[in-house]
């Protein structure tokens, strides 16, 4: 590769009459290639800054492209991935401005750039770059580079779990004319890899039949196939055959380390613990070539390399000592943090949540076992920290950034970060809409190039923000802080963690912390499924009241503490499917009643609020601003989407609160966005949809459909958001983060307090609930209390039939946000005040009349 780069250098220096700057660039690069070192590379970079400032003509800009591509190549060789990315992106930026026909930008810039993003787990940027050069290759009729792009893109799809998409893409590649034998082998290998991931072993075998003894990739795939079939000795023999071919002087250290991780996993399957440990450590020594090697390397020596995570997780799993095992897991978390810091798009960050959560569960299992023996309360505190750090990490960080901007509104650096983040989200959203509606290659390419520029700018700004506000950017929270908040709110916190084998529940009040473990067996899985299923239609509960009572009480017994003070405030932090459970509709006692009003719903015992994490609960606050409602009611009259009770809901709202109404065609997305900042409460009564695995959640305005991604670029700071629409709290469930719902979109945009729905709500009952909610809220200024009282009013309303008092009609709306103390005065107090005033007025009038008579 180095010889090839030197050849390119000589080729370009021989073209035409060179200008002095062009000569200087090639001379410096030639000297560096002759004597490469990390120090020499830094000197070359310093010169590159001056060269870039002074470049004027085409030949000079071409020389700069070659220079930056070489700097990227050598930074990559030295393991300096982020500087390599900057150099490759700079080369691409210059190339786009001039379009040099004689330079292969795909081979020397875009392919290595896409590969680095893939290696770092930044799959969104990897996909963006690879798709960009596939499109470029198509425009140049370069089928070889198109196939190379297909192969590399399939790796991205494999790593993000999109195995079916990868298989379709690879099939397209295999049908390309004029493939070289090497390309056919690469395509077949990747096809086998994805088929193995989908457990389609026989199909995978068909691509692994013919194997050259020197075909390293196919041999490794055969080893993976043997592993899946339980033939561990065969897998080890195949990897032993690979080892001498893979490990040579030209091999990249990272690739060798990954091979040893693969081999260690075979030893683990064979229960050869000592061999597995030695092999993991061998991989670690390759990545950290220290003179005096230590089993637990100091964090300062680690860097953003995914292979470290596989090594530390593997070593943790082999330890007999829980202390050492947790220390290895902590190193994995640390490297994950380093990688996370380099990602600028929330999509990429969300992709990595599942591995973080799996590791958290392993740590919890260790701490639980240790606690059963020692009863050391410090272990529970540590368990709480692990779980809290795994909760809604992306949302937590975003809201922390918003909180920081609120504290320092004039800081230009924070303003710039917000501007860049919003621009990035707008472009991602635009790209999604273009691909969903009318794909346009040129437009997608333009969006991709803009995203590239914003990504680089945002990374630099993020680094500066972290350096300036390192103490303020922590998204963790201590148990002491939570207990102080609970004391203030007179609340009890129930924090859930749903893992593969168990559901953990932390019961926290202002003085104590308890941890409970619930076996995640087939019984509770079925009970959760059945309970959530009761809310899929208006008639499901009424058709099976006895089954509902049994399930609702059984779940209460498993999910809730045995005895908590009645009427206490409950703050619930759900997880996984528990996000879709309306806890208010559980039964705290057995019941034989068929009358809903008489059933012992948890609603009658507690005022319940929710949040995504303990940190967000601790951070949530209710702004002491004057109530001013912006009500959006498209109504959709004379259409199949007509919301017949929506106007009635708007009238109740206007009677009870100071309100600006957007009705019918005024309920447009433009009007909402322009007026939202002027009001403290946003009330949206419309149609919404939770989306599917591929289509995002949506909300309808009169003139437009808003995607959840549209919300990410908004800047909102309301006191409260009320989403009076269907399924606004439902969306694709992502491990660790929760549902990617419209409610989360509003949180991401800045809303801390929200009232939203968990299923398709009934138009009429919603209107009744909202009228009652605002009636109570206007008196007590507490969302949680008003939400509870509106539901109790519904149950106690004699005009509503028993069938329509099913929990389906009243328990859909859940409140996420701050716990507020009621500010209302008792009605008797106000009656006393009114009577007293009337008496005072009466006495005054009598006294006045007597004075006049005397006169």
UniProtKB/TrEMBL annotation:
Which positions fall inside the CHAT domain? 550-817
What InterPro entries would the database entry show?
A: CHAT_dom, TPR-like_helical_dom_sf, TPR_rpt
Record keywords: Transmembrane included? yes
Q: Which UniProt keywords apply?
A: Membrane, Transmembrane, Transmembrane helix
Chain ranges passing through the membrane: 829-847
Enumerate the PANTHER family for this protein.
Answer: RAPSYN-RELATED, TETRATRICOPEPTIDE REPEAT PROTEIN 28
Q: By what name is this protein known? A: CHAT domain-containing protein
């Amino acid at each position: 590769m180095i010889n090839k780069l030197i050849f390119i250098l000589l080729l370009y220096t021989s073209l035409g009459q060179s200008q002095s700057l062009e000569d200087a660039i090639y001379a410096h690069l030639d000297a560096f290639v002759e004597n490469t070192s990390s120090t020499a590379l830094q000197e070359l970079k310093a010169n590159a800054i001056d060269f870039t400032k002074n470049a004027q003509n085409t030949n000079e800009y071409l020389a700069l492209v070659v220079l930056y591509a070489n700097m990227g190549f050598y930074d990559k060789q030295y393991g300096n991935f982020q500087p390599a990315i900057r150099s490759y992106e700079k080369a691409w930026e210059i190339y786009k401005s001039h379009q040099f026909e004689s330079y292969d930008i795909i081979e020397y810039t875009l392919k290595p750039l896409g590969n680095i993003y893939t290696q770092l787990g930044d799959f969104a940027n990897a996909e963006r770059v690879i798709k960009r050069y596939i499109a470029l290759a198509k425009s140049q009729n370069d089928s070889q580079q198109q196939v190379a792009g297909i192969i590399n893109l399939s790796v991205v799809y494999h790593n993000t779990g999109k195995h079916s998409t990868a298989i379709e893409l690879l099939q397209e590649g295999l049908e390309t004319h004029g493939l070289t034998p090497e390309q056919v082998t690469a395509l077949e290998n990747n096809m086998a890899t994805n088929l193995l991931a989908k457990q389609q072993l026989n199909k995978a075998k068909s691509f692994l039949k013919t194997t050259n003894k020197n075909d390293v990739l196919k041999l490794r795939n055969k080893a993976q196939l043997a592993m899946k079939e339980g033939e561990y000795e065969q897998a080890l023999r195949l990897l032993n055959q690979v080892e001498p071919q893979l490990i040579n002087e030209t091999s990249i250290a990272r690739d060798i380390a990954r091979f040893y991780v693969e081999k260690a996993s075979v030893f683990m399957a064979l229960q050869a613990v000592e061999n597995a440990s030695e092999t993991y450590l061998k991989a670690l020594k390759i990545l950290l070539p220290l003179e005096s090697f230590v089993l637990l390397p100091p964090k300062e020596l680690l860097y953003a390399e995914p292979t470290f995570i596989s090594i530390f997780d593997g070593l943790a799993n082999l330890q007999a000592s829980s202390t050492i095992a947790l220390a290895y897991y902590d190193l994995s978390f640390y490297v994950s943090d380093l990688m996370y810091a380099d990602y600028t798009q929330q999509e990429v960050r969300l992709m990595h949540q599942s591995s973080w959560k799996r590791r958290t569960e392993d740590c919890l299992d260790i701490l639980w076992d240790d606690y059963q023996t020692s009863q050391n309360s410090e272990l529970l505190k540590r368990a709480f920290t692990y779980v809290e750090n795994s909760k809604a990490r992306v949302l937590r960080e975003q809201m922390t950034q918003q909180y920081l901007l609120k504290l320092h509104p004039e800081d230009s650096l924070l303003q710039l970060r917000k501007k860049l983040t919003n621009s990035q989200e707008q472009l991602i959203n635009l790209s999604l809409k273009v691909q969903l509606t009318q794909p346009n290659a040129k437009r997608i390419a333009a969006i991709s190039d803009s995203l590239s520029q914003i990504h680089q700018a945002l990374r630099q700004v993020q680094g500066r923000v972290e350096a300036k506000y390192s103490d303020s950017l922590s998204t963790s929270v201590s148990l002491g802080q939570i207990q102080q908040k609970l004391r203030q709110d007179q609340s009890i916190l129930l924090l859930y963690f749903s893992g593969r084998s168990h559901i953990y529940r932390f019961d926290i009040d202002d003085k104590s912390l308890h941890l409970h473990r619930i076996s995640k067996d087939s019984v509770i899985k079925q009970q959760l499924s059945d309970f959530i299923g009761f809310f899929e239609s208006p008639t499901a509960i009424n058709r099976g009241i006895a089954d509902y009572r049994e399930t609702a009480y059984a779940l209460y017994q498993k999910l809730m503490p045995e005895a908590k003070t009645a009427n206490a405030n409950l703050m619930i932090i759900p997880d996984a499917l528990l996000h879709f459970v309306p806890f208010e509709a559980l039964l705290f006692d057995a019941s034989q009643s068929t009358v809903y009003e008489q059933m012992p719903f948890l609603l009658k015992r507690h005022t319940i609020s929710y949040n995504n994490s303990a940190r967000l609960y601790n951070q949530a606050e209710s702004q002491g601003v004057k109530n001013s409602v912006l009500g959006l009611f498209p109504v959709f009259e004379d259409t199949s989407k007509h919301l017949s009770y929506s106007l009635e809901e708007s009238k109740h709202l206007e009677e009870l609160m100071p309100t600006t109404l957007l009705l019918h065609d005024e309920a447009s997305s433009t009007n909402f966005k322009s007026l939202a900042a002027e009001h403290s409460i946003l009330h949206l009564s419309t149609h919404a949809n939770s989306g599917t695995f591929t289509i995002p959640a949506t909300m309808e305005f009169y003139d437009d459909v808003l995607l959840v991604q549209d919300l990410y670029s908004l800047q909102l700071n309301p006191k409260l958001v009320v989403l009076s629409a269907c399924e606004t709290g439902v969306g694709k469930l992502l491990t660790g983060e929760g549902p990617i719902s419209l409610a989360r979109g509003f949180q991401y945009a800045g809303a801390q307090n929200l009232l939203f729905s968990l299923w398709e709500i009934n138009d009429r009952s919603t209107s009744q609930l909202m009228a009652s909610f605002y009636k109570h809220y206007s008196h007590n200024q507490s969302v949680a209390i008003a939400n509870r009282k509106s539901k109790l009013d519904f149950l106690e309303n004699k005009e509503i039939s028993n069938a329509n008092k099913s929990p389906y009609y009243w328990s859909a709306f859940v409140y996420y946000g701050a716990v507020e103390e009621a500010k209302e005065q008792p009605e008797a107090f106000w009656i006393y005040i009114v009577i007293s005033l009337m008496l005072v007025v009466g006495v005054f009038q009598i006294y006045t009349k007597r004075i006049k008579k005397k006169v």
